[in-house]
Prior knowledge:
Helix content: 40-55%
Structural class: mainly alpha
Region (Disordered): 55-86, 122-169
Amino acid sequence: MSADPAPEDALRRRLRDDPDAAAHLAGLRRAVYGRDGSDDADRDALLAEERRLTAEGRRMLERDVAADAPARAAESGSATADTAAVAPARRRLLRPGPLSAAIAAACLLAGLASASAAGLLPDGDGDGARDPAPTSTPGPPSTPGPRLGMPVPDFTPQPPTETNGEPTDAETAAALRETADAAWEQILRERPDAVRPDVPIERVLEGEAWVRQQATCLGESGVRVQVIGTGDDARLGTDSADPVVRYVCRVRFPVAPGDG
Length: 260
């Protein structure tokens, strides 16, 4: 009696005529070897199904061998009789349709490759378990640092001047002079014949203190004006001061640059 067929041959014979069984087995293998992984129940179900199909495939191969025995006995007669007897037997073995055979072969090859890689395929010949092949793929290249590829700034011959939050006295005086010049230009647009008075800066103020000082200065010139509100909401009421008088008060007691 011949030796038992290999598990791969038995499983292939069982799935050859049964596309539904091949599809079911392929689904179990996807559940076990898929991206999401599997649990013990899935692996047990796959092993049980493969054992069952392999055992049935062995029995089918044994029946095929028994059915093919008369053809092999006739081979000892003559070459012509051998050709006539073996050809029908081979045609009987290749009876399934091409579509079913293609589906079963594709599912079988995919399943055997996965089972062989994981060492889950039953081994009836006593062969040692195969070492699982590495399935990891190299990860994507690391992201370059934020400094890579950034343009280099132009070289500066002299280091930039360090500045603090407070302007210098010279910067404050220049800013107040520009403000006074702009205010006088406004007066000249309305009164081209006006003569600009020479007024020194007495005190720089801000907030409510500046508003009340302006009211006092205008009052000294005979202009009555009321202070409305307090704190940051303080402001001058409506007045009828001459533009030159108002200019003089604002130059004597200017508001701090940036607060006006």
